[in-house]
Each structure stands twice: as C-alpha cells, then as structure tokens.
Design a protein that fits this description.
The chain has twelve helices and eleven strands. The chain starts with 6 loop residues before the first strand and ends with a strand. The strands form two sheets. It has a nine-stranded mixed sheet, with helices on both faces. A two-stranded antiparallel sheet has the order 5-6. The longest helix is centred in the N-terminal third of the chain and has 16 residues. By secondary structure, it is of the alpha/beta class. A hairpin with a 4-residue loop joins strand 10 and strand 11.
C-alpha cells in the first residue's frame, strides 16, 4: 500500500498552433508530448499513465502506441471542452492513490486545416440518437444553444450585449501581449457589435476562432519533483460536474455546471475564489466567460455583466486577469481546448509568460490560479485549482 502523495504539474507545452497545414493530429500530439517531457526534464520511460481523447477509434490506445508508450493506467474520458480538467483530476487521484507515478495528458487537432482541405465541414454533427433526437429536427446548432442561454441571461438579469462584447475586447487585449496568438490586433466594442451575425445575439467576434494545435501536461508524484528542471505547480483541488444533454433538461440557462465543479474544487483546495490571482476559463463564446465567472464565485449571480465591463479581465491593470493568453476567442481554439487552460495557468504560476505575465504588487508571479473547462453546451464542467510554494 502506497501512502497518499501530493501531485505536481512539472511539464507543460503546446505544439505548433494556429495555422498548421502540414501536420496530422497524431504529429501534433507527439510534438506537444515531446515538448512537455523536455520542459520537465524527464524521460518518457517514467510515464506509466496516459490520458487522451478525441482522436482514433480506441483513444487513448492509438495515440499511446503512436507515442511509443505502454501505460498501465489510462483515461479516455470525453466530455467536450472540460475533458482535460476532468482528466487532470482523475490523474491526480490515481497518482495520490499510488496507481501511477507520472501521467501524461495530450491533445492535438487539425480542426482548421481539415475544414480548409475539405476533410470535414465547419459544423460538426453530434448525431441524432438518444436525447438529441428530440432537438435535432429543430435545427439547434451548438452555437445556437449557447446563444439561447446568453439571451436568457440578458432577459433575466439585464445583461447587455455591450457587456458580452467586453469579454471579447479584453481577450484580444491579452492576446496582443502573446506573440503566439492567432489574432492580436485590438478590437472595440463597436467592432464586435457590427460584425456578421452568427446566432443571435452572437456576432462573429463573440465566437471563438478555429485553429489547429495541440497541448500536453505532465503530472507526477511528489517524489519525482526533485528530478525535474522546472519548479512544481501543485494540484490543490479539483471538481467535476455534468448538467444535461438535452436543453429541455437544463433547469436554468443562467447557471452552468461550473457552479458545482468550482465549489468542490475550492472546498477541496481549501481556498476561496477571492484568493485566486489568475483564472483560465473556457471561452468558446463570450457568454461562457461571463457566466462561469459568476458560477465560480468571482461575482454574484446576475452580476457578471457589471463585473466584466470594468476591464477586470485584462492582464494589464485587471483585478482578475482571465484567459491571459487571449483564450479561445483570440489565441487559438483547435476543439476541446481545456488542456490549453492548464498549460497557461501553469506558465503564469511559474512566471514564464513574458509580456503577458501577471504580477503581484511585489512583482512576483501569482501563487494561485484556477482552470475551469466547459464541455458540450454547458453539459459538463471540470475545475482545477493550482498553486505554488
């Protein structure tokens, strides 16, 4: 019986991202994995746990084989964008229990290149079986479902379209500080509002970009931290929750499952939302950022609009820097983007973000961060609290 151990993130990396026309998803997985192991300074022979989703018929078997790994602990949980926060929680539990010593989480996608080359269409069908058979005939797209939820929040709490646009404006301001972001040119609220309508009330800039790219995160048991070239970022607490599959079964369009996963994560970490210094939040659409801020407890229910309109989300001068790399709205969004949230949170805590680095009053990097992923159409949520020291 192995004693319960602390768990640290010791390696993080992105593959080439943005516009990548000459790589397969498998190649992006491998590139991100190699870079994460190099970041940690550890050999792949230490990795006995592996988690992947979204690629292949037998994920993560196919991806592990491609990477030359033979893990004895695997996870292929697939709950959309929140997959990676949920997997990180599962990996931490496995390491703590002694079922694995080092777990590698990897994702890669050529979502943009595939559309460009005609290998897939812009709209990904989730099928018509099960609960969705009752809604698909009415033409509900994923974007439309988020738009319906945003409109409900606007009606219920008076949230304005200008406040939602501020989320996109501030994400772009953060992206302007990130040399790897796809879109860096500043935008205004008026530019967001005047863009082409996608799904009322969302215009184009309310919606995430479509990119290629991959990411990897390596978690290890505390006894291996001394062998790493990086400073450890500790997994302090996590939570996961699912809400609904059919929109008709969602009790309240203004409350996301982050209300549960966030509460659990903060309770298990022993910290309060007010102590968090950096937040990386899934932002396929502007409303996701706003409502998740409410549900994580950074402001009251219905107060998200007022909270975001004061510039609080900016790296420069913001009270709570959010999506410091520019997020899915401006930096990159190759599909299930939750792993990118963990990478950016870790880099911020390690003080490695250059011009976009968040700093405390004494000029030191932040010590507490949260990454919260959302999957489906607010169907699932995973939240992870990370800390240093």
């Amino acid at each position: 019986m192995v004693a319960r151990r602390k768990v640290a993130v010791v390696g993080v990396a992105l593959s080439d991202c943005g516009r990548v026309d000459d790589a397969t998803p498998y190649a992006l997985h491998a590139q991100a994995a190699r870079r994460a192991l190099a970041d940690a300074g550890l050999d792949r022979s230490l990795v006995d746990g592996f988690a992947s989703a979204g690629l292949g018929t037998l994920a993560p078997v196919e991806v592990a084989e491609y990477l030359g790994l033979r893990p004895t602990w695997v996870d292929s949980t697939s709950v959309g964008g929140s997959t990676w926060e949920v997997m990180a929680a599962h990996a931490a539990d496995a390491i703590t229990a002694g079922h694995a010593r080092a777990v590698l989480l990897v994702y890669g996608s050529t979502a943009r290149a595939d559309v460009r080359a005609g290998r897939r269409t812009g709209t990904l069908s989730f099928g018509t079986r099960g609960p969705m058979q009752f809604e698909v005939p009415y033409g509900h797209t994923l974007i439309a479902k988020y738009a319906m939820a945003a409109r409900r929040h606007m009606i219920e709490y008076g949230t304005t379209i200008e406040q939602l646009a501020e989320v996109a404006v501030q994400a772009r301001a953060n992206a302007a500080l990130n040399p790897e972001a796809m879109f860096r040119t500043p935008i205004t609220v008026d530019e967001v509002l005047s863009g082409p309508m996608i799904a009322d009330p969302f215009t184009k800039l309310h919606c995430c970009v479509r990119s290629d790219g991959g990411a990897a995160v390596l978690l290890v048991a505390e006894e291996y931290v001394r062998d790493c070239r990086t400073s450890p970022v500790w997994v302090l607490g996590s939570g996961e929750s699912v809400s609904h599959a059919a929109m008709s079964e969602w009790p309240d369009f203004t409350v996301s499952p982050a209300a549960v996963s966030g509460r659990l994560a903060f309770e298990r970490a022993g910290v309060r939302p007010a102590e968090i210094e950096v937040a990386e939040i899934y932002d396929a659409f502007t409303y996701m950022t706003l409502v998740t801020l409410e549900d994580l407890g950074f402001c009251g229910k219905g107060e998200g609009g007022a909270f975001v309109e004061k510039g609080r989300l900016r790296v420069e001068g913001g009270e709570l820097p959010v999506n410091t790399d520019g997020g899915g709205l401006s930096a990159q969004h190759p599909g299930m983007r939750g792993l990118f949230l963990l990478v950016e949170a870790v880099r911020q805590l390690r003080g490695e973000c250059g011009e976009r680095q968040v700093r405390r009053r004494d000029d030191s990097p932040p010590r507490l961060a949260v990454a919260s992923g959302t999957g489906g159409w607010f169907c699932s949520s995973g939240t992870v609290v990370l800390g240093v020291g």
